[in-house]
Structures are given as structure tokens and as C-alpha cells.
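Appendix B. Raw example, untouched.
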Amino acid sequence: MRRTKQQWLTLFQIQQDSDLSVKKFCFEQGMSTSSFYKNKATFTPEISIPTTTLASPFSQVYLAESDKINSSPLQNIKLNIGNIELTLDSKTEVNWLVNLVGKLA
């Protein structure tokens, strides 16, 4: 089923407002997660993400991203936590990453 830009933007908002993971939301909507992420990358506007340092009682968590999310091809996200480096796929759900960083803080 072909959807318009507005239909995709509405779906992204509905998923974000729900407590469902992208995987579960897509299953309930009868679409693939790859289609969801592909269209999200196509239709969402560019936003700036500053470099952030979050203090943790155990270590420092550094999260750095380029100035523009959509200015270059998708890249993996690397988190350095003490002497541990965690590499996440570029398709990692933002809400999941925010939740992870919040729990580490």
C-alpha cells in the first residue's frame, strides 16, 4: 500500500505517542520495520544534535553525533562508557537509545 507523506508523518506520530516498540507497531499496522525506518528517514526533517556529556555515578557517558542527522549516509552510533565501547546500528530506535542513556545516568 502506497502512503502519502502526510500519512507517514501521522503514523510516525502515532507510534511515538504509543507505548509500542517500532517492531510491534509495524506488526499491528501490517508493515515491515524496514519500510517504516526507510520512510521515516525520507520524510522527517533534519535536526541538530549537540554533543552531550551525561554524568553517571559509575562513569562518564559521551554521546556525539554529527551536526545534521540526514546530511550524510547513516552511520553507526558509538557509545563509550568507561573502557567499554558499545556500537549501535544506525537504525536503532531513538526512544530506546534515550531510555538506555537515562538508565546509565
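End of appendix B.
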